[in-house]
Structures are given as structure tokens and as C-alpha cells.
Amino acid sequence: MARVRTSRLEAFSDGVLAIIITIMVLELKVPEDHSLAGLLHTTGVGLLTYLVSFVYVGIYWNNHHHLFHLVRRVSGAVLWANLALLFCLSLLPFTTAWMDESRFEPTPVYIYGVNLLAAGVAYFVLQTVIIRREGPESPLRQAVGRDLKGKLSPVLYTAGILSALAIDRSGRIGVMIALACFVVAAIMWIIPDPRIDRVVRRHETLD
Q1: pTM score of the predicted model
Q2: What are the residues whose beta carbons fall under 8 Å from the beta carbon of 79, sequence distance 6 or more?
Q3: What local confidence, expressed as pLDDT, does residue 1 receive?
Q4: Which three-class secondary structure state does DSSP give residue 57?
Q5: How far apart are CA 120 and CA 191, in angstroms?
Q6: 126 and 153 Cβ atoms separated by less than 8 Å
Q7: If 0-12 CB within 10 Å is exposed, 13-18 middle and 19+ buried, where does residue 154 land?
């Protein structure tokens, strides 16, 4: 029943995330000449920023998919919280392109970090709204547990933002620290949480 009641929200969200990825890949520049050097010079940085943002969108799609496996019904608050998450993610093509065009200048890098932080907060709000509706004994509450990743991620994003803002703005040290924070946060979420998979499997078996 949960899959039927949330199917429209999931289909809409999947479509938006697919469009976000498409827009990002269209921002990549075609090499000026047909050589490896041309590819590295014209597209190299863009490929790196695209890869990082693609991984983030993939992480949110994966978590969103698991999240709504454990949701029985959708309320208006859930719909708006989901839209807020999609809004934050829809800004990724812009902040990614700006960071790429600037060749990692401090301001675009910290704005990119703000974008990641906003998306993380929006996902936390969506998760919280669902848990409040489903109740403290809900499968989602059990799957989330202490949510150590969810608590550590904003710390990494904030550290990255502050590094880009305050450390060596005329050089690259602060920017490199910021990018390292963003990449570490992504790697942390790439590693799947076995608790969620166990709860999802148990929940599907009961259904």
C-alpha cells in the first residue's frame, strides 16, 4: 500500500532529479580540438565538478528511494518538504557551473557549499516531517537510529564553507580544504547503511 500512496510523489521527484542531471551534463564544454590535451584543458575541470555533483544527486535519489519505501501515506507537509528538497537540488546545476567557470574561486566554492548545506537541511526536515507523521515507532524512525551521518554532514559542509570564506582567500588553501570537506561528505554517504536496508527488507516482507 505504501508504494501506491507515494507513487506520484516518487515519480515527480525522480523526474526532477533526472532533469537536474541532464542540465548539468549539458553544461559541459566540448573540447576546442580533438586531442586529450584539449579535453583536459576545456572540459577537465567541468568533468570533475560534474562528477561531484552527479554523485550528490545520486546519493539523494538513493536515500529518497529508501525513505519512501518506509512511508505509509503522504500529507501536505510531506509534499512541501519534498518540494523544498527538490528546490535546493535544482540549484546544483547553477552552483556547479559557477564553480567550474570560476576555476574554483572562493565565492563560488562557498556558495556551492551553502547549496549542499541547504539540501542537507531540507532532507533532514523532510525526514523529520515524515517521522512525526508516522510516529516514533515507525519503521523509518528505527532505520534512522542515531543518524550519525546526518549529524556529521552539516559539520563538514559548514567547515568547507568557512574554509573557503576565511582561509587564504587570495590563494587556494581554503578552497582545497573546502572541496576536501565536500568530497569526504559525499564518500561518507556513498557507503550504504545496512540498517536501512534491513528495515526496508523487513517492512516489505511484512507488507
Answers
A1: 0.87
A2: 9
A3: 37
A4: helix
A5: 17
A6: no
A7: middle
